[in-house]
């Protein structure tokens, strides 16, 4: 029985995970504890799953340490949204526990600081994002020369004028049900930019060895290309349940019929196309930030988050997200990897201040 401390129980990933446990009570998973920043539903969830619950801000590291010590989990699922998840990831790895990571900003900001923590504490970082989960499993059997990450293209893949996009339109994703921030990031392709950075750091591939292709069906989650020229893909319906559960327990450990199998006999159409660099510059900015160094990728994630929040609050337009991010990235940041969490948070704060001034 694998015991899990769930960070971010009331968000999109947390909700999907708990729904899976309701639907499959035979799974060898027990909730050791759960957290949320503030939500009345947390108390009800704690009672339902017979688990202690805690109100936790993502940046409260000392409280998280106390929660880990009290609940004694086997693994931590970090489903906290946004850059606040970094501190939680650092504390989880310091505790020597495996980290099922749904918070991509942790790797984008933390980079080698987090990877070194995992190594020093003999802990694993197991990705939960469907794209990185796919790569993680594909690389178990093959050595890759190139990574190919798929993108749905978001709700505006074919829309000509993006200047007048409304908040509600941007929140209407065609294939995935997600939280607000990641849904807006998917609409601008910033989410894919964060995923490219995360893949580069997690799997050790330079940016020129990571491609993105638009795949509207969201059935192929990622592909790897070998030196021989063969391409291997992981395919499943667009449902986060599978990558969440495979990050927590090994495949075959009581898991059955987690997602509905694909039907090839009834016809299955898969299409691919290049992404439009002019209409969706946020992905290009991510590649540039990755090439420039650690401080720039931290600034990219921080500026984007600040701008997305401003858009969701009606303060800026949809295309202003990219304009603000570009302006913030025009400043100078350290290229070398930060040695401490404080250094990372200082760069983050600096980029957030600059972005806020532009909103």
Automatic annotation (TrEMBL):
It comes from Candidatus Ornithospirochaeta stercoravium. This is 1-deoxy-D-xylulose 5-phosphate reductoisomerase. PANTHER family: 1-DEOXY-D-XYLULOSE 5-PHOSPHATE REDUCTOISOMERASE (PTHR30525), 1-DEOXY-D-XYLULOSE 5-PHOSPHATE REDUCTOISOMERASE, CHLOROPLASTIC (PTHR30525:SF0). The keyword Oxidoreductase applies. Catalyzes the NADPH-dependent rearrangement and reduction of 1-deoxy-D-xylulose-5-phosphate (DXP) to 2-C-methyl-D-erythritol 4-phosphate (MEP). Its cofactor is Mg(2+); Mn(2+). It comes from the Bacteria. Residues 235-352 form the DXP reductoisomerase C-terminal domain. Keywords: Isoprene biosynthesis, Magnesium, Manganese, Metal-binding, NADP, Oxidoreductase. Pathway: Isoprenoid biosynthesis; isopentenyl diphosphate biosynthesis via DXP pathway; isopentenyl diphosphate from 1-deoxy-D-xylulose 5-phosphate: step 1/6. Residues 125-203 form the 1-deoxy-D-xylulose 5-phosphate reductoisomerase C-terminal domain. Its EC number is 1.1.1.267. Mn(2+) binds at residues 129, 131, 195. 1-deoxy-D-xylulose 5-phosphate binds at residues 104, 130-131, 152, 173, 186, 191-192, 195. NADPH binds at residues 10-13, 39, 103, 105, 179. GO terms for molecular function: 1-deoxy-D-xylulose-5-phosphate reductoisomerase activity; manganese ion binding; NADPH binding. One of its GO terms (biological process) is isopentenyl diphosphate biosynthetic process, methylerythritol 4-phosphate pathway involved in terpenoid biosynthetic process. Residues 4-57, 61-111 form the 1-deoxy-D-xylulose 5-phosphate reductoisomerase N-terminal domain. Belongs to the DXR family.
């Amino acid at each position: 029985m694998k015991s899990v401390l769930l960070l971010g129980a009331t968000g999109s990933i947390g909700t999907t995970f708990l729904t899976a446990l309701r639907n499959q009570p035979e799974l060898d998973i027990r909730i050791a504890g759960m957290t949320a920043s503030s939500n009345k539903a947390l108390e009800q969830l704690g009672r339902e799953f017979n688990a202690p619950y805690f109100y936790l801000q993502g940046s409260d590291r000392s409280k998280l340490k106390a929660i880990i010590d009290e609940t004694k989990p086997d693994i931590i699922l970090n489903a906290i949204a946004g850059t606040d998840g970094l501190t939680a990831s650092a504390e989880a790895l310091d505790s020597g526990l495996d980290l099922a990571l749904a918070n991509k900003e942790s790797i984008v900001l933390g980079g080698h600081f987090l990877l070194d923590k995992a190594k020093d504490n003999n802990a694993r970082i197991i990705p939960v994002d469907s794209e990185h989960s796919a790569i993680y499993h594909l690389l178990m059997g093959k050595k890759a020369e190139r990574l190919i990450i798929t993108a749905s293209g978001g709700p505006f893949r074919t829309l000509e004028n993006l200047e007048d996009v409304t908040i509600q339109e941007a929140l209407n994703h065609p294939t995935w049900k997600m939280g607000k921030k990641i849904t807006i990031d998917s609409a601008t392709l910033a989410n894919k930019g964060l995923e490219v950075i995360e893949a580069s750091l997690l799997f050790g591939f330079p940016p020129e060895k990571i491609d993105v292709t638009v795949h509207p069906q969201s059935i192929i989650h990622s592909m790897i290309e070998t030196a021989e020229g063969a391409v291997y893909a992981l395919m499943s319906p667009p449902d986060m349940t599978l990558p969440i559960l495979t990050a927590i327990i090994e495949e075959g450990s009581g898991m059955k019929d987690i997602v509905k199998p694909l039907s090839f006999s009834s016809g299955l159409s898969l299409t691919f196309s290049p992404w439009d660099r002019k209409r969706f510059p946020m992905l290009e900015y991510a590649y540039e930030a990755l090439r420039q160094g650690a401080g720039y990728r931290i600034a990219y994630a921080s500026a984007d988050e600040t701008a997305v929040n401003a858009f969701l609050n009606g303060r800026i337009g949809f295309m202003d997200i990219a304009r603000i991010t570009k302006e913030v990235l025009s400043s100078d940041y350290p290229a070398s990897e930060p040695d401490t969490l404080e250094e990372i948070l200082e760069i983050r704060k600096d980029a957030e201040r600059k972005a806020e001034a532009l909103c």
